[in-house]
Design a protein that fits this description.
11-stranded mixed β-sheet; 564 residues; 4-stranded antiparallel β-sheet; globular
Length: 564
């Protein structure tokens, strides 16, 4: 009941902006019979490539599976390998460094590393709002500068025991970048039961009900927005940025119990079963996507002294994905109930591959609280001596599970191998997409979302916005692919760089390195989708050509000058 009362008052706050939106729309002389589609972008956080049921996984995701069965699934959709760079790229239609977030959200006083999209960028929300769309966002923003206080203050701030004002410059908040409405977290990491940096518009949300769970409220807020948007004739753009299943491993116990024994079989069996599931679902083919060797050959589940902890950790991850799917189901149901589903384009993807991070090693600090609001100590179980799931335990799944759930690929978040940069990608649009249930081999990139939304909205990417000169978008529309009119990728060349990890894909050639000083590797993705056979040694001219092209693009895309 407390949650219902609190959320009811929250919805009333949402409604107060509606008259302003109607006025704005009428001022632009928008046709009240506007038939352009609504656009809903749903982004998961640290989702494994094969986590979803419709991508071969064992996690129960009936709502996303439904969207996949009645829409399109891609097997080569790319992100930038990390949270905030992917968000900046998606929002602006630029590669991360061009957008100002080549690394994370700290200002490093270099053009590609300012920690927030600069004044010469424009967001999808800004462009679509100018074109008469209603705009709203819920969830994780993570593209505002984050500046750390001195340690004692920081820890009190994170645990809600002191308030030190705004979480960043409010001119960088979503409502200053084209969104009429926003409810969510400004920073990246959250306690799912009591999130830090929670705001409604620009106003801090200082109190929450006892039974708060962030995934639920992100989803419920999106449902509330659709309820309000659907009362107006103008189409809407809604960005739903889930935090799940990013660490810390937090989920309601009843959800975790659904997966209590699922992962007792261990990494290798889960990995093999997922590989078979990917084949059965038509996501990959055995003739060009072998299952690589397990990246941790020295590890055997049978001799794992932490098997109970590891099984529980993965069960919590599964519960987080499951709960996110449930919230997406409520959103789809609301779209259907309001008559909007038929002409709503839904994009679903993840900001990067599964995370290998072990936040327990770092302990409290920066974005990790050391205690709860009511003073309970938060445990960081480096030795895996406290079971994950509750608010007072802060942990992640670690590299072995990350490798497992990124099946069939190697590596993970922050790396430019396929396990770090490849995401499930579902597109659902009943009115126009007729190839339902099809798996698309066409490569595409998160940078293409902007151009695609502009195409859907029948508008143009601006050369100037509010008097500011805007960098040209590098993304290309995916509409020809979505409509079954293209057999190639959205672009000929895709580019990556993050903390020295780097790659370039040109048609089916992929040049990639693990870190800054590592040698370039070369893979023929047409015949080796899972990057097993490095053919750099037998193709030195191709390596040289692609490496030069990467360097040229690194200059163009503002990787240089790079921080030390």
């Amino acid at each position: 009941m407390l949650k219902q009362i609190w959320f009811g008052s929250l919805i009333l706050m949402f409604l107060c902006t509606s008259c302003k939106m109607n006025t704005a729309a009428s001022d632009k002389n928008i046709d009240i019979t506007d038939s352009r589609p609504n656009i809903v972008v749903i982004m998961a956080d640290d989702l494994g490539y094969s986590d979803l049921g419709c991508y071969g996984g064992e996690i129960r995701t009936p709502n996303l599976d439904r969207l996949g069965a009645n829409g399109l699934r891609f097997n080569s959709f790319y992100n930038t390998s990390r949270c905030c760079p992917s968000r900046a790229s998606m929002l602006t239609g630029l590669y991360p460094h061009q957008a100002g977030i080549g690394r994370m959200t700290m200002d490093m006083e270099l053009s590609g590393y300012r920690g927030t999209p600069g004044e010469n960028t424009v967001t999808i929300a800004e462009v679509l709002k100018e074109a008469g769309y209603q705009t709203g966002m819920t969830g994780k923003w993570h593209v505002s500068p984050t500046n750390q206080l001195e340690e004692e203050k920081q820890l009190k701030w994170l645990s809600h025991q002191e308030n030190y004002g705004t979480f960043s410059d409010t001119l960088t908040y979503p409502t200053s970048r084209g969104f009429d409405k926003f409810f969510g977290n400004i920073w990246g990491v959250v306690d799912y039961f009591d999130p830090f940096s929670l705001v409604n518009g620009v106003k801090q949300v200082e109190n929450i009900p006892d039974e708060y769970y962030h995934t639920d409220v992100i989803g419920d807020s999106a449902v509330a927005y659709v309820e309000q948007f659907s009362k107006n004739k103008n189409p809407f753009f809604l960005y739903v940025a889930h935090c799940a299943p990013h660490w810390p491993l937090h989920a309601p116990e009843e959800e975790i119990n659904k997966y209590a024994n699922t992962y007792d079989k261990g990494w290798r069996e889960i990995r093999y079963n997922r590989y078979q599931g990917l084949i059965e679902k038509g996501i990959i083919k055995t003739d060009n996507a072998e299952l690589p060797d397990f990246m941790f050959p020295e590890l055997a589940w049978e001799s794992n002294t932490n098997a109970d902890w590891d099984s529980r950790a993965m069960a919590v991850h599964a519960a987080m994905v499951d709960r996110m799917d449930q919230s997406i189901g409520k959103l789809v149901d609301k779209l259907e109930e309001t008559g909007e589903l038929e002409n709503t384009v839904i994009f679903f993807f993840s900001d990067n591959g599964a995370s290998s991070e072990r936040p327990s090693k770092y302990g409290p600090g920066f974005d990790r609280a050391g205690s709860t609001r009511d003073g309970r100590k938060v445990v960081f179980p480096v030795e895996k001596d406290s079971m994950p799931g509750s608010q007072t335990v802060h942990s992640g799944i670690g590299p072995v599970w990350a490798h497992t759930i990124n099946t069939p690929f190697r590596f993970w978040k922050a790396k430019s191998f396929e396990g770090g940069i490849n995401s499930p990608f579902i597109v659902h649009w009943p009115r126009q997409i007729k190839e339902q249930g099809i798996v698309k081999d066409n490569p595409a990139h998160v940078v293409d979302i902007m151009a695609t939304c502009i195409d859907l909205a029948g508008t143009k990417y601006p050369e100037k916005y509010k008097g500011r000169v805007i960098k040209p978008t590098v993304g290309k529309t995916m509409l020809p692919i979505l409509m079954g009119k293209s057999s190639v990728g959205s672009q000929e060349v895709y580019f990556w760089e993050h903390f020295g990890a780097a790659a370039l894909r040109k048609k089916n050639w992929k040049l990639v390195r693990l870190e800054k000083n590592a040698p370039w590797e070369l893979y023929d993705l047409a015949n080796d989708r899972t990057e097993i056979h490095n053919v750099a040694g037998s193709n030195p001219e191709t390596v040289e050509e692609l490496a030069k092209e990467w360097e040229d693009l690194a200059q163009t895309y503002e990787v240089y000058p790079a921080p030390n």
